[in-house]
Amino acid sequence: MASHSESVALLIDAKAHSEWSSYWIDSDLLTPADAWEVRLSHGAGGPLSVQCGSRVQVKVGRDTVLIGHVDQVRRRTSKDEKTLTISGRDLVGVLRDASAPVFTARQVGLAEVVANVVKPLGITKIRISRAQPHAAWDRISIEPGDSAWDALVRAASAEGLSPWFDPDGTLVVDVPDYRSPPVATLVLRKNGEGNNVEWFDEDMSFAERFSEVTVLGQSHGTASALGQHAIKVTVKDKTVTTYRPKVVVDYDAPNLAAAEARARKIISDSALAGHTLRAGVQGHRTPDGLLWKPGQRVNVVWEEHGLDAVFFLIARRLSGGRRGGTRTTLTLKDDGVWIAGNASHGSRRHRHKRSGPSLEVTDAVIDASIMR
Q1: CA-CA distance, 165 to 91, in Å (whole number)?
Q2: How many CB atoms lie under 10 A from the CB of residue 197?
């Protein structure tokens, strides 16, 4: 059984429910809608009146890990046991399921786009990056059938930002803070000295890498009647030596800066897919008592493969129950690669070649004759 400080509770309609047979709680900056599931077995009583669609707050000890809704309630009765399973997602679930309001506007900023998309769906706590100025779109359109989440991601990506939800239900549109100090050091040495992880697992892939990304846009008043593109930005990743180009058309890009931000984000996303490190640890907290959560930075020492570097925690799964104790699976990415905002790489030490991109803008023009 989990200790009191690690017990998982669902707060639904001002009532707390806990003491689960098993549970898992995901949080992933790359996957829309963090999911969770709890299970109660042996007919030990529980929240049998829980209704699908109920708003829920999921807590570990005194810490909130997500706010969302109950998506599914499943009951099962057999000769040997009774089982109740409750599962759901955080507030991104609403944005994924619902369509965005259809609208077309001129001279609209990111904050207005976000407000138009998410506020009608009940998302009221919003924080948008102030680290960089935001350009106004000359024209932005949300088409019928676009989900609210897709529209939000497209608007954020145009400025090199990404949306996610904080545990308290705040929608954040920003870049990660790569200047924050690491919250822990994960160690796996051959002699066992200082080891505090159960396992490491590393994946390396070249499947989704691009040597260059070209974004074609349309500057207000400069495109021809035939719809020819007036903005063109090409960003190259010099670490990809094989020619693997990608072209993206972004009709809503208001200027060269927005087109370049979009191209850089596509490049960084492709590099991000190329290297993943996972680790299994006991408990749900760092040595200093912080709950593991995406956005943290972590020192990694994996002696067998000469790995000694700072990584970025992109995802984690909390799991546990009556059997097996509490565990956390951490998914780590190269530091400074996901949305390369205010990154500081001075602390990197790695005896292998890094998979992060080395970017160069090779073409940035406004010209109504492009693609004639």
Answers
A1: 8
A2: 16
What one-character-per-residue DSSP string does 264-279 give? HHHHHHHHHTTEEEEE
Q: What is the pLDDT of residue 80?
A: 79
Contact 6, 326 (CB under 8 A): yes
pLDDT reported for residue 1: 42
Whole-number Å distance between alpha carbons of 56 and 14: 9
- Residues 6+ positions from 208 with CB-CB distance below 8 Å: 270, 273, 274
- State how far the Cα of 233 lies from the Cα of 270, in Å rounded to an integer: 17
The token duo for 20 is: 């689960």
270-286 residues labelled b (16+ CB within 10 A) or e (exposed): bbbbbbbbbbebebbbb
pLDDT of residue 317: 97
Q: What is the pLDDT of residues 212-225, one digit of tens each?
A: 999 998 755 444 44
Nearest Cα to 61, choosing from 333, 291, 313, 363? 291
